[in-house]
Amino acid sequence: MTGLDKIIDRILGDAKERAREILESAQNDCRQMAQDFAARAAALRAEIAEDAQRKGEALVSRAKSAAAMERRNLLLKTKNALIDEAFEAARAEVLDTDFGKYRELLTALLAQALVEEAKNAERSLAFGDEVTEFDTYEVLMNEEDRAAYGAAVVEGAKRAALRHIGEARAAKVRLSESTADIDGGLILRYGNIEANCSLSMLLGEMRRSLESKVAAILFATEDNETTAEL
Fold first, then answer.
1. Which residues, 6+ apart, have CB-to-CB distance to 137 below 8 Å?
2. Scanning 46, 107, 154, 215, which has the fewest C-beta atoms within 10 Å of its C-beta?
């Protein structure tokens, strides 16, 4: 082998060794890169899975809250409807009561309104305030009640309240020629003041003061069951 051949063999050997080293390094780099990507992929999968679980739990929680709110709204709507029905039944019962009892109710309402007006005037005098003298105290009813009970109610109320309002004031109380657009009850008008004793007004006041008690009676058992379920 000549000196040139030896040089060529050495160069080729060095080149092969270098190629082997480069290939081995590249393979190592590929393995490391694959491991790195696998680790990153695993971490990403875990992160996605955890995020999905959180979002899923949040979605379920929102769905439960929405369902609970819808249920409460439905129950509240139903309760209000039943309470409306209860007070409507009370109104109907008052209107459907027999002649004597309904007339007595109207008489009592008017007498009370007259006495209350007289007491207000007395309190104003006691405080030194100026008290307006009214020429008339008009009693207004709806057309049906006026025809059936009007005169009797006015006279009965005047007699019942006479001791408190005096003869002078009682003489000014009269049944109005006009009628009122009310479902029942009456209105006492004097000057520019109206004492609203209509049935709807009275039942409205009763509802404000009694609604919680009515609800407690109607829904006591149901509320306990609802609380237990929640």
1. 114, 117, 169, 172, 173, 174, 188, 189, 190
2. 46
